[in-house]
Amino acid sequence: xxxxxxxxxxxxxxxxMTQCACVTTASRGTPGSYGYSNAPVGIDSPxxxxxxxxxxxxxxxGKEMASTTAVLKVVLDKATKQSIEEKLEKCADLARxxxxxxxxKQFKGPAPDADECRQETKSQGRRITWAMxxxxxxxxAARKCAEVALNKLRxxxxxxxxxxxxxDLETGEKELVSTEEERALEESGNGGELKGTLKPDxxxxxxxxxxxxxxxxxxxxxxxxxxxPKWTPYPPGHPFAGFTQGRMxxxxxxxxxxxxxxxxxxxNE
Length: 269
Description:
- By secondary structure, the protein is an alpha+beta fold.
- The protein has helices spanning 2-18, 46-52, 54-74, 78-100, 114-118, 130-153, 179-187, 245-252, and strands at 120-123, 126-129, 158-160, 163-166, 174-177, 197-198, 202-204, 214-218, 256-261, 265-268.
- Helix 1 (2-18) packs parallel to helix 3.
- The model is unreliable at 1-47 and 63-70 (pLDDT under 50).
């Protein structure tokens, strides 16, 4: 069962990249460290299933239905994908540079080393590591840059830091969590209710975040490195235990998922 589902994910990616409505199956092999739930089962209608879970759409309604009613609706053409990713790559580069320039004398070099990343600093009244502080500030800078760039490139067809609540892991059913609801839960001390949610940095769509085409997360390693950081699996006890953040994005939000790393570029799943 797992092999079939993994093959369907590969299928979705192949259609996304080739712009082809025909479908073939493939296998990505063993699950490795990801883990996987049982095959999604259907909800009330093909349109709802295809909107909420591409893999469930293909599994339940077949290749032709997935090709015509789901896959082609979420495909980003090559030129659009390239223009979006070029903007986001520039935002990641600029964010890292801008934030490090705020602290010209804080570190021994232009960027902190591993020891300096672990040192504590005070930010907004609380003590956190420099790795956390720089990551927060770089994400804020990248978000502002992405908002300006995407508003020019595709106004009304993207979302930043949109939170999703996964209602059912089996069906793939999900809903949007508004900024107001998120703030209210946090301010009332009920932020734990957000534990079973997903919040990508950038969501690309055609006007409906529930029918997303791509999601991207900015990743800012504290120490300069030439290696690409991996998606971290959720820990035991978490609602998404056994999955990684990237796998959850791909299975429940959009078929195209990317990590954006300064100076290294975008790495699509």
